[in-house]
Amino acid sequence: MASLVGCSQQTTSEKIEPVKNDEGHNKYFLEGSDLIKPYMQLQGVQSKSAKSNQAKADITRGIALLNAVIAYNTNNWAAWWTMGKGYQALGQSDKACDAFGKSYAIQKQNADVAREYMLECLNLGRTKEAVSVAEYAVGLSSNDAGLYANLALAYTLAGRLADAQTAIGKSLQIDPSDKISQTLRRIIQEITDGKRPQPHTMADLKGR
Predict the structure, then answer these.
(1) Is 117 found in the same domain as 177?
(2) Which runs of consecutive H residues, i.e. helices, occur in 92-208?
(3) Could you list the pLDDT tens digit for every one of the 208 residues in the chain?
(4) Residue 28 belongs to what domain range?
(5) Rounded distance, CA 9 to CA 92, Å?
(6) Of 73, 89, 107, at which residue does a domain stop?
(7) Going by C-beta distance under 8 Å and a sequence separation of 6 or more, which residues neighbour residue 174?
(8) Are residues 12 and 98 both part of a single domain?
(9) CB 116 within 8 A of CB 101
(10) DSSP for 34-47?
(11) Same domain, 102 and 119
(12) Which CATH number covers residue 146?
């Protein structure tokens, strides 16, 4: 998803005026994206901590700029996605899920959009929705081990353990060395064997 962000801009405290034309739309999108980019939680990428006041100010301004972009062009799925990453960095799962959901509603051909939406659904305990999105994502990229692992995770939290075992098996068939999938396979087996209580949320899963 690196293509969703743009060139470096300085953070300022100036008032954000409404977007009036395509030029302003593009400027705000690039600036807002660039403010959020350092704090994005991306697999295999080291992100900056979002705990400092400066980080929170950067992300908050980035989100405000993207809100102005969306007010001008509500169909900008990349703006919704990047806004979701901003809320995600701030730990606001409900707002992140809403933004990712709007991005997914517009752009259903990008597996990364589906992935982020599914994970935030799981954080909120919306397992039925997460399963639906995860199943769709696998259809977009049937050779992506990570997507099958996500599907297995969604099935696990939905209590569909047989389906979870099938999905994690497919993930490990594609990438046998993946440590996350190996761990998830063990957890699924422990739940199946009654050695671990059935989790219903990500918090339940991480609690042991």
Answers:
(1) yes
(2) 93-106, 111-123, 127-140, 145-157, 161-174, 179-192, 202-206
(3) 434 444 334 444 568 999 999 999 999 999 999 999 999 988 767 789 999 999 999 999 999 999 999 999 999 999 999 999 999 999 999 999 999 999 999 999 999 999 999 999 999 999 999 999 999 999 998 899 999 999 999 999 999 999 999 999 999 999 999 999 999 999 999 999 999 999 988 888 887 4
(4) 1-107
(5) 24
(6) 107
(7) 143, 144, 145, 148
(8) yes
(9) no
(10) HHHGGG---TT-PP
(11) no
(12) 1.25.40.10
Instruction: Tally the residues of the chain.
Output: 208
Question: Which residue, chain included where needed, has tokens 């006041």?
Answer: 53
Tracing tokens 């990570």 back to the chain, one arrives at 146
Nearest to 179 by CA among 149, 200, 154: 149
* Burial class of residue 51 in the structure, from the number of CB atoms within 10 Å of its CB (0-12 exposed, 13-18 middle, 19+ buried): exposed
The domain tally of the chain equals: 2
Q: What is the dihedral of CA 10, 12, 18, 24, to 10 degrees?
A: -20
Considering the domain architecture, whether residues 46 and 83 belong to the same structural domain is answered as yes
